[in-house]
Amino acid sequence: MAPVSRRRSPLALLLLALAVVVVVGIVAFSVGRLSTLGDPTPTNTSAEAGFARDMQTHHDQGVELSMIIRDLTDDEAVRLLAYDIALTQGGQSGRMSGWLDIWRLPAHSSEPQMTWMMRPTLEGAGHDHGTDESAHKPGEPMPGLATPEQIAELKSLTGVAAERMFLELMIAHHVGAIDMANAVLDRSTNETVRTFATGVVESQESEIDLMNEMLAERPAP
Question: How much is the pLDDT for 38?
Fold first, then answer.
């Protein structure tokens, strides 16, 4: 009798990855609730609340892009990276949702997105991390967010072409997330948020280095 193949289909792998992201998100939501109990409660228009809302949106797209590339390539290195990004950012999104819940704040603000990034820093006017305020206006797309047209183009590709575009989009995505994390570090004394944002900066800077190396290994035709 011929041996039964244990290789899972791309759909099964995708469903498994999505299930893991959902479970991790639920756990992270609970952790997020617990991790804020010792901090002063942020207000609805605070930098902490704005960061939690906008970074959830940002991370959710990171998960989306990762799920897309997993279905477009058989490259194990890219698929492993995508799985790690989806798992990490899905979990972090759940944690930030937990913050808003324990702070008794709505999931969405009546203000345009990124309004919090335009408010004064702890040092007063300007940004400690050198962010160019003119590049970010309330209501405009968040820094590093892929456009609908870019996502549609990524979905139309396969193989190395898809891998390259994913890496390029995700590098820009990470740069934007670092920008947002630095912005909240410039505006918040909340230890839970500061620890989280510092972790985002450190981990995503490391992943940018990795993705630049992966991109160099996949030269454009």
Answer: 62
The token duo for 21 is 């992201």
Q: How far apart are the first and last CA of the chain?
A: 44
Please, are residues 143 and 180 in contact by the beta-carbon 8 Å criterion? Answer: yes
pLDDT at position 221 is: 77
Q: What DSSP state is assigned to residue 115?
A: G
Encoded tokens for 90:
């899905």
Nearest to 188 by CA among 66, 85, 40, 27: 40
SS3 24: helix
User: Is residue 1 pLDDT above 70, yes or no?
Assistant: no
Confidence of residue 79 (pLDDT cuts 50, 70, 90): very high
Radius of gyration of the chain (CA): 19
d(CA 40, CA 168): 39
Which residue reads 């890219």 in tokens? 78
Quickly state the pLDDT bin for 56 (edges 50, 70, 90).
very high
Distance CA(29)–CA(32), nearest Å, equals 5
Q: Residue 67 is which amino acid?
A: M
Distance CA 53, CA 69 (A): 25
| Domain regions of the chain by residue span | 12-107+142-216
The secondary structure element, H or E, covering residue 103 is none
- The CATH class given to the 12-107+142-216 domain equals mainly alpha
Question: How far apart (Å, rounded) are the C-alpha atoms in residues 213 and 201?
Answer: 19
